[in-house]
Design a protein that fits this description.
Elements (H helix, E strand, L loop, with lengths): L11 H15 L3 H33 L3 H26 L7 H30 L2 H27 L1
Helix pairs in contact: 1-2, 1-4, 2-3, 2-5, 3-4
């Protein structure tokens, strides 16, 4: 059975991220909320880092139109916006009345980004990647993501 093309965006990771974000929003236990937030932060940071180091450069070399290059650059800019908002939320005390609204803004940015990945980036990747390229890219993506996620978790524990 062949791997689904561009499996780094097969939807599973996005669903897991959305589930964790919903848990962050709904939990009232401060310790649990921060644990979930850190898990979410590390997960998204790992995902973004892997995309920026592995997926986006590879796709950028293969695309042929300015429109496609603009899409990839927009994805990168959305990563920067999301990571900035993560740092804002992380620096805000949980007791601060703005923590939950700041997290909601973060999630809105990320949800928009995830939707664009599914609706625009995935179809582009499926169009330009061979099955072999997809598999190789996915393997590299997973390696980099795992390492970056662990680095972020270690940083957040300090």
């Amino acid at each position: 059975m062949a791997k689904e093309k561009y499996t780094v965006h097969n939807g599973e990771e996005h669903e897991k991220a959305k589930k964790i974000a919903e848990q962050v929003k709904s939990t009232r236990d401060d310790k649990k909320k921060m644990e979930l937030f850190h898990e979410f932060y590390a997960m998204i940071d790992g995902h973004h880092t892997a995309e920026e180091k592995v997926v986006f450069p590879y796709l950028m070399e293969k695309v042929e139109t300015d429109e496609d290059r603009d899409l990839i650059n927009e994805m990168i800019e959305e990563h920067h916006l999301g990571m900035y908002q993560f740092s804002v939320v992380n620096k805000t005390f949980l007791e601060n009345e703005t923590w939950d609204p700041k997290f909601s803004v973060l999630f809105e940015v990320l949800e928009h980004h995830m939707d664009e990945e599914v609706e625009e980036l995935m179809p582009l990747a499926k169009k330009i990647l061979s099955e072999e390229e997809d598999i190789e890219l996915c393997e590299k993506f997973e390696e980099v993501m795992k390492e970056a996620k662990q680095e972020r978790m270690d940083y957040l524990k300090k």
